[in-house]
Amino acid sequence: MKLVDMKLPKKSKKEMKEEYAISPMDEERYPYGLRITFEQEQLKDLPYLKEKKVGDKCMIYCEAVITDTRMSERQNGKTNHSVGLQIEKVDVKPKKMQYSKKMTPKEYKEYRENNGDE
């Protein structure tokens, strides 16, 4: 499975000033609309997420239904196309680790536990 990076392109200072009334302290790297928040009710079914810290990585596998599609054209001639998705089923797994002879026993145990099942 090939994963596509959704990172936003870097904006110049001029573009940022035009877009924002005041210059932001920290430019977002990814579109806000791509964020998913799991509330307490969902975390009961996905206990793996409760154990993770900010910055940890994981893999999300999901089934979603397309809820809407939109296409529009602006006065300046630019077009916009968007597709809305509603995630209906989800599973979260640790990011696959690469085996290394330099692994600690704890890392090796985690590698065995998380890479054994597909």
How does this structure look, described?
This protein is an alpha+beta fold and 118 residues long. Helices cover 20% and strands 27% of the residues. The protein has a two-stranded antiparallel sheet. A hairpin with a 5-residue loop joins strand 1 and strand 2. The chain is extended and about 60 Å long. The two termini are 12 Å apart.
Strand and helix layout:
Blueprint: H1 13-19, H2 40-45, E1 58-73, E2 79-94, H3 105-115
Antiparallel strand pairs: 1-2
What are the salient characteristics of this protein?
3 helices; 118 residues; 27% strand; alpha+beta
**C-alpha termini separation:** 12 Å
- Uncertain segments are none
Kindly report the average pLDDT value.
Answer: 80
- Which sequence of strands runs across the widest sheet? 1-2
Structural shape: extended
Question: Mind describing the biggest β-sheet?
Answer: 2 strands, antiparallel
How do you describe this structure in short?
By secondary structure, the chain is α+β, with helices and mostly antiparallel strands. 20% of the residues lie in helices and 27% in strands.
